Amino acid sequence: MENGVHYRTCHLCEAMCGVAIEVNNGKITSIKGDDQDPLSQGHICPKAVALQDLHEDRERLKKPIRKTAQGWEELSWEDAFDLVAEKLHGIRKTYGRNSIGVYLGNPNVHNHGALMTTMPFLRAIGTQNRFSATSNDQLPHMLASLEMFGHQILFPIPDIDHTDLFICIGGNPMASNGSLMTVPDIRGRLKALRQRGGKLVVIDPRRTETARLADDFHFIRPGTDAFLLMAMVHTLFEENLVDPGAAERLVKDVDLLRLAALSFSPEAVTRHTGIEAEAIRQLARQLAKTPRAALYTRMGTSTQAFGGTTTWLAYCLNILTGKLDIPGGVLFTQPAVDLVALGAMSGQRGHFGKRHSRVRGLPEFAGEYPASTMADEMLTPGEGQVRAFVTVAGNPVLSSPNGQRLESALEGLDFMVSVDYYLNETTRHADVILPPTAALERSHYDLIFSQFAVRNVAKYSEALFPAADDARHDWQILLELAHRLEQQRKSGRLPLRSEMGWRAFKKLGPDPILDLLLRTGPYGADAGPVRPFAQTAIELVMDILPERNPLKGLARLSPLNRRWDELPKGLSLSALKAAPHGIDLGPLQPALPERLFTRDGLIQMAPRRYLADVERMQATLESAPADGLLLIGRRHVRSNNSWMHNSQRLVKGKGRCTLLIHPDDASKRALNPGDHAEVSVQGRDVVIPVEITEDIMPGVVSIPHGWGHHRSGTGQSVASSHAGVSINDLLDDALVDPVSGTSVLNGQAVDVRVWQPEPQQKQA
Question: Distances from the Cα of 213 to the Cαs of 192, 279, 440, 489, 696, in angstroms?
């Protein structure tokens, strides 16, 4: 790597911040924000500086290892691939294709190479037992998008740079840098909002980092957001404030929504939500009467007992008040690689409930079952029991509910393999670990988060450091395993054309395909230069993909959308390489009706599954609010995920894994500052330092997500020395939102008491 400054996109969260990395003699000497990045404009958070720590981490695995009776030992890539392919094939042949389970973690979506090769890998395994972090995170938003707009990743994004009212419910973009809303420098953008006379309103059980900036803040009891939003819908109809505006000719079944909201007056829901009726009415009026406004909900609303219905109602409120598809409201993005159009072209808009899980009958979504049922599928005997497991860049022991039960399930597997460069709380159970290259050793393009950005941009980052000769990128690992599994399934020999396709894919890698995606996209250049180089190879690659894979529709994309003719052209991989800071593609623009993919071309305001759930809401409304303490999670800007905790600069300072509790609740339990509390539910318990604060609602306690590094047998010494506790060791994996299948991570009842350490026995 040449000395000097190199420009790149930080991959550690959704924000896509541009960074300027200075390298001298093969070492990183500084990491700063890229002032010329069109999206982040010089902003970075503390995580970006830790890119150096993650790259230089001596505990990062660099060669395959396997578990033996004497401990872990290294083995060659060839031997590792042979072993894994043989074991997986043998289990599949003996017990059937569904005897293998696969879990995909969040880092996969920050990696265009992994994304492009995941489908061939899953196809080669052939299992229906697929899981990911989606059902612990964003599934309600995907389901609402599918039901209302006809596509599972067609999310309405707040146009925060032009809005005059931003209502944030159950989200904390100051810590997350946006979530399903890619928004770097949220502080600067909120400051600009207020400077132009705008207003920020936050509703949350905790006065979050974002809430501290708010003009108005309201506590809300966990799990009751659906009641608040339904009461706002009620108010809109009651006070004749419904006006869909530009979307009026596109909405369907508005009257059914009005009927569903009839019994949910602000007065009726106050007891459950903890928000006064007049405050609820005022929220509805503000949203309706502010021409440029956006209502945004996120993790706190989606990961609860009414997560699916809450997200639907949030979408409805933006539509009923005329905020959909207008500048300053909520808009659909037009990214350079349009995954929405690609999927639609091939009929892959998403699906829900086509089949159900073997043990608990939970619905699949886009081919995946909820992560909360992974342990069930491993522990329950019978046909289809998961006996082998593959994890790719994931740590579900810490990120999925009832992590201890999942640990027990992993211990009982016949075989487990992990594609990961850390020996962590999940991968320690594996028989083989295949470590990919570090992120700075591969190229980078944000295929996914460009779909959610508050401004259309495109940026490509070349590898900053060369990979070692004996290293493998994650896409190489997935392709090699897929190829070998297909060979074994075909008794060792594939048809010539198929074999050539595999070899071409492995030789080309993801970047030529990325180039083709850019050239055939809405801003694309003529595809001519790429065709003489790789046309035949790309055709062969396409040949091994599933029939309905979105890549199959590339050649037909450009004529699909008439709006594409109005956009700037000339985008290609070479154009992005010549623009290391990225290319600004412009602000979000109105895109309806072309951006709708429902069968009748209309927005479905009252899908049947949500109307049916109103009965459950009604029953809850008529019952008394639960007594006791309700548990919620939280995140910190330095530690969004468990895999970031092995960086000293990210975990240093005041301990952040604490139990937040209101002074009144602490007093009732004789808890004082400096105490440790025992938090328990149904026989599961953790011990955690107490932090008494009025920033948490009375009746609510909070434990952060991603900690719990006390497990033995891991290879992350920094993380272990800042172990904390895992909130998921408390949470019940049997609790899901019945509408979406999403894990209930917020609002579970817990007991809290002073922890009394057992007295140590005197030595004889």
Answer: 12, 19, 35, 58, 16
Looking up residue 233, the CATH number of its domain turns out to be: 3.40.228.10
* Same domain membership, residue 542 and residue 469: yes
b/e map of 431-446 (b: 16 or more CB within 10 Å)? bbbbbbbbbbbbbbbb
pLDDT of residue 555: 43
Can you tell me the distance from the alpha carbon of 130 to that of 85, in angstroms, rounded to the nearest whole number? 18
* Residues whose CB falls within 8 Å of the CB of residue 623, separated by 6 or more in sequence, listed in order: none
Interval 21-48: pLDDT, tens: 999 999 999 999 999 999 999 999 989 9
- Asked whether residue 627 carries a pLDDT value surpassing 50, the answer given is yes
Provide the number of structural domains found in the chain. 4
Tell me how far apart the alpha carbons of residues 599 and 149 are, in angstroms, rounded to a whole number.
Answer: 10
Nearest to 621 by CA among 169, 204, 256, 306: 306
Under the banding of pLDDT at 50, 70 and 90, the label for residue 497 is confident
Per the domain annotation, does 531 fall within a domain? yes
Is there a domain that residue 275 lies in?
Answer: yes
Q: Is 764 part of a structural domain of the chain? A: no
Q: Residue-wise over 354-382: b if at least 16 C-beta within 10 A, else e?
A: eeebbbbebbbbbebbbbbbbbbbbeeee
Q: How many CB atoms lie within 10 A of CB 477?
A: 24
- Domain housing 423: 65-136+337-587
The verdict on 128 and 29 lying in the same domain is: no
- pTM (whole model) above 0.90: yes
Distance of CA 151 to the CA centre of its chain: 17
Average pLDDT over residues 504-521: 91
Q: Are residues 430 and 565 in the same domain?
A: yes
Q: From start to end of 300-430, where are the E strands? A: 330-331, 352-356, 363-365, 388-392, 415-419
User: pLDDT tens digit string along 541-591?
Assistant: 556 665 555 555 454 444 445 566 677 788 999 999 999 999 999 999 999
Task: Tell me, yes or no, whether 417 and 519 share the same domain.
Answer: yes
